[in-house]
């Protein structure tokens, strides 16, 4: 055994690398918080979008036959305008030959502008009772409405029957609509019309307390004298007929500018206006009616802003809160449909990827397992196995003992990267004759691997992690592809050894389904993006040709794999070369590892971005491998968890049963792919029982990790080789299974 030992003191000061790692680690918490805030913002946007569509809490029950014993007779038999000045309910009727033209359920982007155009043409004022959610979605229409001199009132925020709701819900419906009006047109209003209301004689003991409470808050409730019933679409003639008051009486007349297809309303409105004017009627707003009734006999009619007397200028907090609401709704209106389209594209891409993986994995398995398949003459010459180690005291003995049982001749080079836990001493104490321990000051994993490559005696080097164990036949299987002189590197089959926990089982599924099925596909396409650090073999000359392991990225394994492609070497996958590795045992460690992987992959892809325009083997990776990695290892993993979020969104706001069935259908496809991957690797199917939970929890975490990585990339952050806490529980392959 050969040992290279630099001089050391009793206590070693932190190295530059360690100090850099410490500084970088200190930056992680803000980035994690930012990632969580981004997810929270998305959830809030989706909840707002769903709430705007009035699918949550919507209550469209219509009550018949309820008692009205608590309602004063003066109200039941009075006019359509109910005020509570001085705490006493008072009704106001519309004067003869006067029409208070009112519209419900708007604004609507199709029909409301057409209504406004007709009213402007005939110079007719009207009162629009607006749904707050629609106001926040189409604020420009409301601003135009107010500017043209029309009056607006509240029709609740979500078009809900308030008589069924709690006091808090009633207050929320009113306040939110006022905020929407403030944000859209800079005003608030004192007018209110309840959804599903009609004439005052329909007020009952359930709804009366709501009107009284709103009256105490300063609201005027507006009902209907004459209903056009245009929502029934009976035809233009019927709408005009039904909207005409009897015997030249005045009336509060109801039309609808939203809530359905309103082409008949648009056609009937000009005819109705012309007919009423021919009969000597004048048109006014609700405030105009109240002004006319309260004015002394013979006084001139009020006009101008008095037709909008119910409006109040929005100032202070309510104005800014209203603008914030409108801005948030604008974001939701843009973001949710855009994400929906994006997810449809991603869904098609993911399903296509599953299909491509299954076809190519099957072809790969059949091709490599044919009886006559051979890479060439058997490779029997010795190889060098490099084990970079940093504080691996729990695992290093198991790793070296597994290598000692190798059926292929090897030399073992343990490169101790400044361990402080006695890792090198443990390796030396084992007394293995074919083991060399090389000590170096802490410089990171790439430097340790490069040190090992330079010190290797043989032309093939196998690289493995210090927490990994090999089967006796692993090295022999791993090096056989080097019989083909075009092969520069070989990726082995990494297995999760500590799979008895929930986190371990999730990673086991990911390794078998995601990593190994992917590698079969990439192998056939000749664009393998990554040789796993746990098990990989290289031609020594190929590693030296590309400059060794680079410290430019956090994913040195991905970096050198792409570099080998660019240099013209072929990279293949050897499924029969198995290594058992200890996966992270906690969510914190898993986050740290996957963050490094995903961010490192981004760094490597950016570093080798010129492959997109290169020619030859480098260009092949750039035009085939690069798009596949970007699409399926960065883009779709970010969006795939959103499928679950949108599923929950659809369950709450759209169709629960259909959404649930769609989610199970996608899960079924994934289970099918996973089952086939388990069959190829001869794994036990029982672990697939954890897959539904993996989709609900694990994938969401991977989404946050990717956001974290993207934020780090945008802010220019950087990490060094991160050490995960190990337990040494992966002792032998048998024990790992």
UniProtKB/TrEMBL annotation:
UniProt cross-references to PROSITE patterns, sorted A to Z: NODB (PS51677)
Domain spans labelled NodB homology: 97-284
Cross-referenced Gene3D superfamilies: Glycoside hydrolase/deacetylase, Spore Coat Polysaccharide Biosynthesis Protein SpsA, Chain A
Transmembrane segments: 339-361, 628-654, 660-680
GO molecular function, one term: transferase activity
Keyword annotations: Glycosyltransferase, Membrane, Transferase, Transmembrane, Transmembrane helix
Region (Disordered): 1-21
InterPro entries, per database record: Glyco_hydro/deAcase_b/a-brl, NODB_dom, Nucleotide-diphossugar_trans
Membership in a protein family: Belongs to the glycosyltransferase 2 family.
Protein name: Bi-functional transferase/deacetylase
Annotated source species: Streptomyces lomondensis
